[in-house]
């Protein structure tokens, strides 16, 4: 059985609606990416330099990143040589296999680390406007649905309307928000929230933070301070430091992951706005270059639009159309 | 960033060519490949890159370049000139209506910076042209979006028109314009909700706002960190609304900002302003030439120079420049530069603008820790005059003495010596890079 078929088998074995939603969200990605690879394979019967160059382009257009793409294509060339593959049709499966391995190598637990007993503290960080506050609202709702008690900390005391925004999400999810006035010290808000969470015996505390660009040294220090306060007050916390990345972002996402990673020991990534046409290929690069799992994906602005990340589904979603012709099914051609 | 900057890579390529004395087709291919990769690395859309490469190919492999003593730098010059050209002239003006109020509509993806930019732009126009703006809160979807705009209005002491979040954005926009007429506000800024360019219903809503208010400006707000998708976004918004301008936000970050080129290439509309921070005065006219340098990884040198010139006196700067050129830059000079730089503003901001700064290990450390700078100062102060002018004489026993004298460690002394060496190397490179230019050498930086 081909690698892809195995994957498909694995996926279709799941009857989870979650999986479908995830796939729907990625439909645009899948369509254009798969159609283009397919198209490429059709136009080039033989595996040659031009073929690889165009493959490079497809991957780059998905924001996979130049370095990763070059490495990937090198790997493919090697594979083609050692397996003596001359026809592009045969190479299709290898492409999927190599990409999939890249995404799943050293796979870490993608689940959010919720403590069995005692308080779980989740710190949410990232650059401006990526979707931190929205993701927190969605997460609060999700945990609440799972029967957990949740508290939110309005740690963004800087941006206009940030506190009110989190309060609206708190109302929507039916959870309380601990806040101070705009302009106050974020570490103090977080501290109060921890105290409140402890005294109320809350299961999960999720801390919002102001968006900050990773090259702002002072703001990164402020974030380190917030994290220190959490560690000091709750041993072993924060149990998760989630870095929110916007799928629309290009190569800078890598720098974000590196620098936020260094400053706050990021434990996982939330990839938002995958409901747009941005391909989210940066996930490959991040997975490959940094040892950071993607834990959640944002697929819209609604409270339900948050899903766990599943790399099998992701790869399947990216390429399923490419292989439909294998089963005699037709696939829509895309001309671009 | 694992990528070397384009200057280095081209230098490498040409070194090989030089040895052979003849340029082959493969060499040309290699060279354009380097340019291509640098642009892709900077997030310029791959299709835009393709067109661009075709554009420069002829010039880049022409006589002008190959006969030059420094072909690598010549290519960069050509690339930068073409990039600047493509980016268009400076156009930091808003189209004003002959019949007030002027209507300015801001549109874009979620989180791009529309609401913040609405505040900034209103502030800018009031300052520059004495206008009396009204802000219209037409985002009825995002939680607390209205509150956000109202807070900004409060900070600016500017009126905000809102009808709550039950009204339709089209009605709000229409009423806002009427209200502005009534209150003699001569310019209205319409803040719209973030939306995906593929969201047909919401895109139609924008068309309806346009229809109802006949804006003089429809400005697409684009996050400078946007990747390859920038072209799809810009194309869609432009097709449906007919954009009149673009504003790039978050350029205070360390992204190369290739999206600027993509957006300009597909829409043809001018990029008018650059968002340089979260505060309401952090809006600057967009400088195409600087953007071109930045995309090529040469840093925002001009901004840095402007800052420097405002702080440092001309004479000293000239002297420094000469020292840099003749490579007679010493630790004494370094020390002086350090103190001048510190008076210019937060170090991290300055270093962010410096070409290649984040690629040099020592620089990155400097960037992270202000305390370390006091250590550096202490180390240099513990050197003898001879050591400061000629660091090569600093042997193991001298290192030990310096470390003791400055209360630091030998490792720290070693690190500084290494940094200094790297820095000189970089200076040399940068001095070389600009040699071809006729205009005033931009590198009269007060430090480095
Ligand atoms: N389409 C889409 N929009 C999203 C998603 N997640 C967030 N958004 C939108 O993105 C915008 C910014 O979201 P926020 O949650 O305010 O982002 P943030 O990171 O908290 O922003 P700052 O606090 O200002 O740094 C809002 O308009 C959200 O509705 C997503 O998964 N898909
Ligand atoms: N560093 C920096 N941050 C910026 C800049 N412009 C906007 N921001 C920040 O980016 C985030 C999003 O800005 P908003 O103005 O809320 O963006 P928006 O496009 O109105 O967002 P939606 O209405 O949710 O679509 C906020 O945290 C802003 O403070 C800029 O030029 N530099
Ligand atoms: Mg927020
Ligand atoms: Mg807004």
Automatic annotation (TrEMBL), chain A:
Claim: Hydrolase is one of the keywords in the record: yes
SUPFAM superfamilies attached to this UniProt entry: Domain of the SRP/SRP receptor G-proteins (SSF47364), P-loop containing nucleoside triphosphate hydrolases (SSF52540)
Annotated keywords: Cell membrane, Cytoplasm, GTP-binding, Hydrolase, Membrane, Nucleotide-binding, Receptor
Predominant location category: membrane
Domain SRP54-type proteins GTP-binding stretches: 293-306
Cellular compartment(s): Cell membrane; Cytoplasm
Catalytic activity: GTP + H2O = GDP + phosphate + H(+)
Entry superkingdom: Bacteria
EC nos: 3.6.5.4
Topology term for the membrane: Peripheral membrane protein
Residues annotated for GTP binding in this entry: 126-133, 208-212, 272-275
Recorded family membership: Belongs to the GTP-binding SRP family. FtsY subfamily.
Subunit structure: Part of the signal recognition particle protein translocation system, which is composed of SRP and FtsY.
Physiological role: Involved in targeting and insertion of nascent membrane proteins into the cytoplasmic membrane. Acts as a receptor for the complex formed by the signal recognition particle (SRP) and the ribosome-nascent chain (RNC).
Name of the molecule in the record: Signal recognition particle receptor FtsY
Biological classification of the source: Bacteria, Bacillati, Bacillota, Bacilli, Bacillales
Recorded name of the encoding gene: ftsY
From TrEMBL, chain B:
Subcellular location, principal: cytoplasm
A Pfam family that the UniProt record links to this protein: SRP_SPB
Subcellular location per the Swiss-Prot or TrEMBL entry: Cytoplasm
Family that this chain belongs to: Belongs to the GTP-binding SRP family. SRP54 subfamily.
Name the UniProt record assigns to this protein: Signal recognition particle protein
UniProt function note: Involved in targeting and insertion of nascent membrane proteins into the cytoplasmic membrane. Binds to the hydrophobic signal sequence of the ribosome-nascent chain (RNC) as it emerges from the ribosomes. The SRP-RNC complex is then targeted to the cytoplasmic membrane where it interacts with the SRP receptor FtsY.
Keyword Cytoplasm appears in the UniProt entry: yes
Domain SRP54-type proteins GTP-binding: 270-283
The protein's enzyme class: hydrolase
Catalyzed reactions per annotation: GTP + H2O = GDP + phosphate + H(+)
Protein source organism: Scopulibacillus daqui
Binding site for GTP: 108-115, 191-195, 249-252
Keyword terms, alphabetized: Cytoplasm, GTP-binding, Hydrolase, Nucleotide-binding, Ribonucleoprotein, RNA-binding, Signal recognition particle
Record carries keyword Lipid metabolism: no
Gene assigned in the entry: ffh
Gene3D superfamilies reported for this sequence: P-loop containing nucleotide triphosphate hydrolases, Signal recognition particle SRP54, nucleotide-binding domain, Signal recognition particle, SRP54 subunit, M-domain
Domain notes: Composed of three domains: the N-terminal N domain, which is responsible for interactions with the ribosome, the central G domain, which binds GTP, and the C-terminal M domain, which binds the RNA and the signal sequence of the RNC.
The organism's place on the tree of life at top rank: Bacteria
EC number: 3.6.5.4
Record InterPro entries: AAA+_ATPase, P-loop_NTPase, Signal_recog_part_SRP54_M_sf, Signal_recog_particl_SRP54_hlx, Signal_recog_particle_SRP54_M, SRP, SRP54, SRP54_GTPase_dom
Assembly information from the UniProt record: Part of the signal recognition particle protein translocation system, which is composed of SRP and FtsY.
């Amino acid at each position: 059985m081909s690698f892809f078929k195995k994957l498909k088998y694995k996926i279709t074995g799941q009857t989870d609606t979650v999986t479908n939603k995830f796939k729907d969200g990625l439909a645009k990605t899948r369509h254009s990416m798969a159609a283009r690879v397919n198209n490429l394979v059709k136009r080039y019967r033989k595996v040659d330099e031009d073929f690889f160059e165009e493959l490079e382009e497809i991957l780059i257009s998905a924001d996979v990143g130049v370095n990763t793409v070059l490495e990937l294509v090198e790997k493919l060339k090697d594979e083609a040589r050692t397996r003596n593959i001359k026809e592009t049709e045969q190479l299709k499966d290898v492409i999927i296999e190599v990409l999939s391995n890249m995404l799943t190598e050293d796979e870490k637990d993608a689940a959010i680390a919720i403590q069995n007993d005692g308080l779980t503290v989740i710190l949410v960080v990232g650059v401006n406007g990526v979707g931190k506050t929205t993701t927190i609202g969605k997460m609060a709702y999700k945990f609440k649905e799972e029967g957990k008690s949740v508290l939110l900390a309005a740690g963004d005391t800087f941006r206009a309307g940030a506190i009110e925004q989190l309060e609206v999400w708190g109302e929507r999810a039916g959870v309380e928000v601990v806040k101070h006035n705009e302009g106050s010290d974020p570490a103090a808000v977080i501290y109060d929230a921890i105290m409140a969470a402890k005294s109320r015996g809350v299961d999960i505390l999720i801390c919002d933070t102001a968006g900050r660009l990773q090259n702002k040294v002072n703001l990164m220090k402020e974030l380190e301070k917030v994290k220190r306060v959490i560690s000091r007050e709750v041993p072993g916390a924060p149990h998760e430091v989630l870095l929110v990345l916007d799928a629309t972002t290009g190569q800078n996402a890598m720098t974000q992951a590196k620098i936020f990673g260094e400053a706050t020991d990021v434990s996982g990534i939330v990839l938002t706005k995958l409901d747009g046409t941005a391909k989210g290929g940066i996930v490959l690069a991040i997975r490959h270059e940094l040892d950071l799992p993607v834990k959640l994906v944002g697929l819209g602005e609604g409270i339900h639009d948050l899903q766990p990340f599943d790399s099998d589904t992701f790869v399947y979603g990216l390429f399923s159309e490419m292989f439909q012709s294998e089963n005699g099914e037709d696939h829509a051609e895309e001309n671009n | 960033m694992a990528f070397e900057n384009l200057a280095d890579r081209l230098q490498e390529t040409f070194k090989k060519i030089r040895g052979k004395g003849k340029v082959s087709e493969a060499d040309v291919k290699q060279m354009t490949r380097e340019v291509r990769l640098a642009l892709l690395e900077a997030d310029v859309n791959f299709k835009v890159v393709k067109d661009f490469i075709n554009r420069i190919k002829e010039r880049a492999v022409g006589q002008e370049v190959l006969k030059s003593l420094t072909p690598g730098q010549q290519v960069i010059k050509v690339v930068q000139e073409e990039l600047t050209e493509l980016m268009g002239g400076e156009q930091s003006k808003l189209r004003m209506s002959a019949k007030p109020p002027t209507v300015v509509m801001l549109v874009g993806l979620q989180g791009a910076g529309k609401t913040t930019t609405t505040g900034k732009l209103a502030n800018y126009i009031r300052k520059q042209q004495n206008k009396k703006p009204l802000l219209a809160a037409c985002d009825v979807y995002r939680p607390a979006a209205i509150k956000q705009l109202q807070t900004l209005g409060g900070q600016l002491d500017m009126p905000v028109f809102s009808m709550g979040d039950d009204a339709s954005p089209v009605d709000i926009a229409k009423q806002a314009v009427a209200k502005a007429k009534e209150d003699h506000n001569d310019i209205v800024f319409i803040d719209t909700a973030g939306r995906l360019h593929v969201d047909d219903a919401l895109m139609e809503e924008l068309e309806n706002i346009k229809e109802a208010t006949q804006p003089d400006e429809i400005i697409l707000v684009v996050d400078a960190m946007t990747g390859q998708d920038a072209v799809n976004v810009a194309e869609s918004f432009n097709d449906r609304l007919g954009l009149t301008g673009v504003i790039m936000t978050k350029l205070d970050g360390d992204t190369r900002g290739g999206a600027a080129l993509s957006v300009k290439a597909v829409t043809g509309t001018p990029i008018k302003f650059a968002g340089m921070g979260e505060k309401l005065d952090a809006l600057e006219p967009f400088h195409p030439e600087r953007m071109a340098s930045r995309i090529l990884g040469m840093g925002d040198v001009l901004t840095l120079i402007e800052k420097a010139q405002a702080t440092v006196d001309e004479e000293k700067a000239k002297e420094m420049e000469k020292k840099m050129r003749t490579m007679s830059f010493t630790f004494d000079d370094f020390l002086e530069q350090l103190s001048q730089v510190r008076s210019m503003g937060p170090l991290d901001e300055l270093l962010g603008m410096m070409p290649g700064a984040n690629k040099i290990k020592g620089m990155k450390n400097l960037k992270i820790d202000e305390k370390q700078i006091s250590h550096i100062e202490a180390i240099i102060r513990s050197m003898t005059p001879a050591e400061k002018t000629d660091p090569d004489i600093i042997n193991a026993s001298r290192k030990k003495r310096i470390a003791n004298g400055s209360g630091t460690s030998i490792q720290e002394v070693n690190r500084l010596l290494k940094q200094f060496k790297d820095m000189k190397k970089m200076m040399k490179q940068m001095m070389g890079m600009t040699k071809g230019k006729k205009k005033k050498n931009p590198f009269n930086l007060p430090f480095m």
